[in-house]
Amino acid sequence: MTGTPVLVVGAGPAGLTAARELRLRGVGPVLVVDRESVPGGVPRHCDHAGFGLQDLHRPMSGPAYARHLTRRATEVGADLRVSTTVTGVADDGSVTLTGPGGVEVVRPAAVLLATGARERPRAARLVPGDRPAGVFTTGQLQQWTVLEHLNVGRHAVVVGAEHVSYSAVLTLRSAGVRTVAMTTTLPHHQTVGAFASVTRFGLRVPLRTSTRVVALHGRGRLEGIDVEDLATGRVERLAADTVVFTGDWVPDNVLARRSGLVVVGPGLGPRTDGGGRTSRPGVRAAGNLVHPGETAGLAALGGRRAGRGLADDLAVGAVDRTAVGLGLVVTPPLASVVPVVVDPADPPRRLLVRTSAFSRLTRVVARQGGRPVGAHGLRHSVPNRSLGVPGTLVAAADPEGGAVELSLE
Amino acid sequence: MVTGVDVAVIGAGVVGCAVARQLTLAGASVALLDRATDVGDGTSKANTAILHTGFDTEPGSLESVLVSEGHGLLTAYAASAGIALERTGALLVAWDDEQEAALPGLLAKAEANGYGAATLVDATEVRAREPHLGPGARAGLSVPDESVVDPWSVTLALATEAVGGGARLLLSAPVTSMVTATEGHELSVPGGVVRSRWLVNAAGLGADRIDALLGHHDFTVTPRRGQLIVFDKLARRLVGHILLPVPTARTKGVLVSPTAWGNVLLGPTAEDLEDRTDTASTAAGIDALLAAGARILPDLVDEEVTAVYAGLRAATEHRDYQVRVHPDQRYVTVGGIRSTGLTASLALAAHVTDLLMGAGASWSGPPRPTRVPIRPPLGESQLRPLQDPARIADDPTYGTPLCHCEQVSVGEVRDACRGPLAVADLGAVRRRTRVMNGRCQGNWCGAAVVALVAAETGRDPDELTGLSR
């Protein structure tokens, strides 16, 4: 195979879909590397339905989706190498790969980072107390049960009340673990009503709202979790041998940062336009590295856009294009927006906005230099869920007019 | 089971392991006992990982002498054992008039301790050396020989060498009772009895209680808890030296230090406790450390926290080490070894051996040649297996990534499980390999590590994760 070589880092939904898109558009060779021994990314260990709808318009389970995306990338000629990790990125764009076959330095024309996201673990959340075993994130819990078939425990507390938290309750249930409580610092759950009702009334899992975890107890194995009622300050100890910290997604941004990319947002993801261009020529980014905590389908769609954008740029010799355009910033309670770089003349179909507070009948307002340039009404907004806002919100902004500020009014 | 030896050493922390090694090399038969399931599982595993020069110890104290000697001994030992050690140097930073005024006194103290390389530096120089420091640094004292070291590997190497020389390592072996007679000691541990002609008490937080069993009340241990916060490796670029505060009477204060593993450490707190097992972190401790860190290195607190832990220092009512020989009882106690114990460990071991010999001890065998075990390269400045084409070509498992944050291969974890010091839990594997110690804290590799360790050691996974004990 001859042509323009592209390295894709990460064989999850974004990386695999980007690789397929690049190959379909005649780019190659395309090498996809993944540090895990099996490709597919996070869906590999999400053993439940709901995958594939957004990008492939057909429902499948996580593991089936992971296999399907792998097949679709390799069947069009993407080279896939697993158990292979990036151990260096040089200023000249060369990348050091290490795997069981040895250490190799490659010099691709472009690198597409699709390294995904993960949930913040207990330590990064600064939860005090002892350091016993039995402390999980949802992703870790899923690998425990789905990939390695290990025992989890008997009684669990799930920290969080968003989609992934409810998914953790189901994973625990299938592993024979009773969830004794869910907790959220917010006043309501953040998932769809039906999911919350079935869990609360069907599975009889109580939800403690406006509650935070203030300490873990246990020598060797977890024994108890102190939770504080934020309204009264009352602290109660829940007996459990397992705790699952859910949500609070952070991009796996190490490679992005080591590559010198400009990073932004609460979790320091790469500053990227809708097409995956970054601050560095020849380096692109897509998927949950850019928008941590979104669905696999959205990550795949982002990978497709980045693959298409890169193929188009390669075709016209513009692989060095960087993310140039208007910068988007948010003011509280808005927490983040992606993409953070937009071209008002060619805005993305939609912007994904996240908020930190519940609200009803509000508007997202875009301002440039204090001057309103667009607004979009919302029936309600929920933390830990992204709100889709039309990209045309910023179409009237002056391309030379400086950053556009999004706020909720 | 009855074990008869020349010397029983109670406590397999860094000091006990160093003593056991030294005595083994001298020709003694040694039993090394600890209540924990691994060596170095108490105070020794939760320190600040600094190799001190002893510049600020009390001149003329035993600590001053042994830290100064131990610094050189441990530097050489780390080099021969392949243990990560970086001579980063330390910079004491003065933030106000009082602290600035104290610097010349500290310089004089360093010189009184026989350390001549410390120099005063002005504010401009402080900033040039540490451009990420917060505003308001007034002056500094440079101590170029303060270093950071991988503390877990030191204890493991010392224990491995002792065991390799014939020492008996008895873990999960708390001393339940003790009989001392003129001919020696009889220690009862679960499942057995250890008879020894001589006894060394290196029991750390329990040293005063062992001492009391022999009728001595020379000191009382008051555990001093030190909470520490470890920051992600992406923070390492923010700091070059060990940044020390100007010390107060109670503690060396809150420091910011690189680690040999490439992280940044912030701490410790200093809290006197009653409970000798309370290694929990607290909200107040974490908040205080973050507030101090934000002043010293403002960018630091924006980086991700990798771990929060607490260690208990074996503080006593005395400032100096409490090392005493009781020739009539054939007994040496090594108490009150606080945060400088890692640095002083090899010098303490030589000192204890001298005390025993001076009390008339002799050993059943001839001196043994040193066989320093080579530790796996765990330091960020070392060539790790995943970066080493020759090792991967030799064995592809060294090229198979397992822990992504810490860049640990499958082969290294397998080696740890098969090593001479058995692993009883995941903590033991973490200390031998760095696995699961990174920013994701086992999110990506935890399940695979448990499965691999279970397969390699034959242990039930539930035992490794504390579900069935």
Blueprint of the fold:
The complex is a heterodimer of chains A (409) and B (469).
Chain A: E1 6-9, H1 13-24, E2 30-33, H2 53-56, H3 62-74, E3 79-81, E4 85-89, E5 95-99, E6 102-106, E7 110-113, E8 117-119, E9 135-137, H4 138-147, E10 155-159, H5 163-174, E11 178-183, H6 193-202, E12 207-208, E13 211-217, E14 224-229, E15 235-239, E16 242-245, E17 249-251, H7 254-258, E18 263-264, E19 269-270, E20 283-285, H8 296-315, E21 326-330, E22 334-338, E23 341-342, E24 350-355, E25 359-368, E26 371-381, E27 387-390, E28 404-408
Parallel strand pairs in A: 1-2, 1-7, 2-3, 7-20, 9-16, 10-11, 10-16, 11-12, 21-28
Antiparallel strand pairs in A: 4-5, 5-6, 8-17, 13-14, 14-15, 18-19, 21-23, 22-24, 24-27, 25-26, 25-28
Chain B: E1 2-10, H1 14-26, E2 30-33, E3 50-51, H2 62-81, E4 85-86, E5 90-94, H3 97-112, E6 119-122, H4 123-129, E7 139-143, E8 147-149, H5 151-164, E9 168-170, E10 177-181, E11 184-189, E12 192-201, H6 207-213, E13 222-231, E14 242-245, E15 255-258, E16 264-267, E17 271-272, H7 283-296, E18 305-315, E19 322-326, E20 331-335, H8 341-358, H9 389-394, E21 401-403, E22 408-409, H10 410-418, H11 426-433, H12 446-457, H13 461-464
Parallel strand pairs in B: 1-2, 1-12, 2-9, 5-14, 12-20
Antiparallel strand pairs in B: 3-8, 4-8, 5-7, 6-7, 10-11, 11-12, 13-16, 13-17, 13-18, 15-16, 19-20, 21-22
